[in-house]
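In the current project phase, we have settled on a layout for protein records. A sample record is reproduced below.
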Amino acid sequence: MTLLSIGKVAKRAAVSVETIRFYERKGLLAEPQRKASGYRQFSEADIRKLVFIQHAKNLGFSLNEIKELLSLQADSSTTSREIKNIAAHKLRDIEAKIKMLERMRETLRHLVNKCPGKGPTSECPILDALASECETEAH
């Protein structure tokens, strides 16, 4: 088995060395083997795990969710139904966020269209709307 330095692994997995160290601290990567000199030595499996983590992050999974996925992946009794349920839950979360973002976009679009873009800030409908939201939340 070929062992690689942290720098080579970082390059191959397209992450920074500090990211690898961070994942180690968070328990996403196991403590690697070390040379007598103390340098970390990583395997191809570590690279695959780093790529997995990055792909999962890109799909919106949190580090805790990724840790759970990795744990389930390592457990031979895990079924694909368990993984599907986690992914379906993440999909519902993302869909809810999209709806919220669409509402935010429409509100901002309305405010931008309402603002003439001239005159003093005391007459700015965008600032007025934000201030009235603050007053509503404070009560």
Q: What stands out?
A: The first strand starts at residue 33 and ends at 34. The mean pLDDT is 92. The two ends are 64 Å apart (CA to CA).
